[in-house]
C-alpha cells in the first residue's frame, strides 16, 4: 500500500498542477475493478485525517475525493488542492486564447486603461497580480511603468504562465487565501479579476483580508468581476444552470454585490465602483459573446459529470442550450453584460 500511495500521490500532484480535469481515472497503482473499490482504496489514504468523515467519501464529487487523497499523500495545501479541484473552467491552450480575448474585451470596456486613475506607480513600487493566468495584464502594464517597478504574478497553477517576459516581472505559485507572511505591507497595488469561478464564497473575505495585509499603507486594491447578463429565455435558463453549478461548488456568482462591503470589512477606505454595460448583440458584442459562450462550453464536463442538475441530460442537450444562448445574444438588441471595477485604498499610517 505504501508504494501505491507514493505513485498515486505523484500522479495526482502532476495532474493538478498541469491543469487536467477532475475526470481522471485512477492509475494502475490504485485502480481496482470497480469504482466503489477505488473509493475504498482512496479511503485508506485518510488514516489520521480527522477532518474528513470517511462515511461521506462515496457521496462527494469524484474530483474532490482525488483532491482529498492528494492532500494526504503529497502533503500539499488542502485549500490549494480543493480549490484546484473545484475550479470549473479548463486550463489549456484554448483557455489561454479565451483569456487573451477576455482581456481585450475588458480593456476596451474601460477605455483602454489598465489602472484606475487614482493609482500611481513609480520608483521601487511593487505590484501583485492575483490569479494572473497568462500574465497578460502584467505584460501589458510593464511597458507603461519605469523598469524599477517590480511586478509579481501569482496563480495556483503554472501551465498558463508565459515563457518569456521582462526581467522586472516574476511569476510564482501562491494561494491568495494564504499569501507568504513575508509579503506584509509590500505592494503598492494588488490587482485581481474574474475569480468568481475560482474562489469559494467562504474564501472571498479571507482572500480580501490577505490582499489587504500585503498592501503597503496608502496602497491600492483593484478588482474586476462580472455582474448580471441578460438576453432572453435561453440565456436565463443557462444562467440558472450556471448558478446551480457554482452553488454546488461553494462558489459565489454574485460576489460583485458583496464586494464593497467585503472591502470595507477588511479595512479598506475610499471604495470606488465603476460599472460598464456592454452590448452582446451583433458585431458590437461579438468578442464578449464569443468569450462568454466559450466559458459556458468549458463548463460542459463538470455539469454533465453530476447529471446536468435537471437542466440538461446529455452532451447534445448541453450543446443545444449553449448554441441557443449564443444565437439569442447575437439577435437580441437589448442583450447586455455588466462589468464591475472596484478600487479601494489601505489607510496610510
TrEMBL record:
<dbReference type="GO" id="GO:0008168">
    <property type="term" value="F:methyltransferase activity"/>
</dbReference>
<dbReference type="InterPro" id="IPR029063">
    <property type="entry name" value="SAM-dependent_MTases_sf"/>
</dbReference>
<dbReference type="InterPro" id="IPR041698">
    <property type="entry name" value="Methyltransf_25"/>
</dbReference>
<dbReference type="Pfam" id="PF13649">
    <property type="entry name" value="Methyltransf_25"/>
</dbReference>
<protein>
    <recommendedName>
        <fullName>Methyltransferase domain-containing protein</fullName>
    </recommendedName>
</protein>
<feature type="domain" description="Methyltransferase">
    <location>
        <begin position="127"/>
        <end position="219"/>
    </location>
</feature>
Amino acid at each position: 500500500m505504501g508504494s501505491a500511495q507514493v505513485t498515486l500521490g505523484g500522479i495526482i500532484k502532476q495532474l493538478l498542477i498541469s491543469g487536467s480535469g477532475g475526470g481522471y481515472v485512477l492509475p494502475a497503482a490504485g485502480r481496482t475493478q470497480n469504482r466503489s473499490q477505488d473509493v475504498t482504496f482512496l479511503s485508506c489514504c485518510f488514516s489520521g485525517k480527522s477532518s474528513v468523515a470517511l462515511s461521506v467519501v462515496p457521496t462527494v464529487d469524484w474530483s474532490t475525493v482525488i483532491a482529498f487523497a492528494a492532500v494526504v499523500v503529497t502533503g500539499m495545501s488542502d485549500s490549494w488542492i480543493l480549490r484546484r479541484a473545484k475550479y470549473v473552467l479548463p486550463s489549456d491552450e484554448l483557455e489561454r486564447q479565451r483569456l487573451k480575448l477576455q482581456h481585450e474585451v475588458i480593456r476596451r470596456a474601460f477605455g483602454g486603461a489598465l489602472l484606475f486613475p487614482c493609482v500611481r506607480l513609480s520608483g521601487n513600487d511593487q505590484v501583485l497580480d492575483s490569479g494572473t493566468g497568462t500574465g497578460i495584464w502584467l505584460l501589458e502594464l510593464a511597458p507603461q511603468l519605469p523598469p524599477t517597478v517590480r511586478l509579481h504574478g501569482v496563480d495556483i497553477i503554472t501551465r498558463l504562465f508565459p515563457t518569456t517576459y521582462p526581467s522586472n516581472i516574476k511569476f510564482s505559485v501562491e494561494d491568495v487565501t494564504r499569501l507568504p507572511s513575508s509579503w506584509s505591507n509590500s505592494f503598492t497595488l494588488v490587482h485581481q479579476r474574474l475569480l468568481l469561478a475560482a474562489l469559494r464564497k467562504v474564501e472571498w473575505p479571507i482572500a480580501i483580508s490577505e490582499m489587504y495585509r500585503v498592501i503597503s499603507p496608502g496602497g491600492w486594491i483593484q478588482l474586476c468581476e462580472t455582474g448580471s447578463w441578460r438576453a432572453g429565455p435561453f440565456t436565463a435558463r443557462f444562467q440558472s444552470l450556471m448558478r446551480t453549478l457554482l452553488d454546488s461548488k461553494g462558489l459565489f456568482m454574485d460576489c460583485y454585490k458583496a464586494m464593497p462591503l467585503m472591502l470595507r470589512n477588511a479595512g479598506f477606505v475610499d471604495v470606488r465602483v465603476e460599472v460598464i454595460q456592454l452590448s452582446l448583440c451583433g458585431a458590437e458584442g461579438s468578442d464578449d459573446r464569443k468569450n462568454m459562450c466559450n466559458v459556458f462550453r468549458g463548463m460542459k464536463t463538470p455539469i454533465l459529470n453530476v447529471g446536468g442538475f435537471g437542466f440538461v441530460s446529455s452532451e447534445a442537450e448541453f450543446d443545444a442550450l449553449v448554441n441557443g444562448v449564443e444565437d439569442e445574444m447575437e439577435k437580441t438588441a437589448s442583450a447586455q453584460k455588466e462589468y464591475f471595477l472596484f478600487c479601494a485604498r489601505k489607510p496610510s499610517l
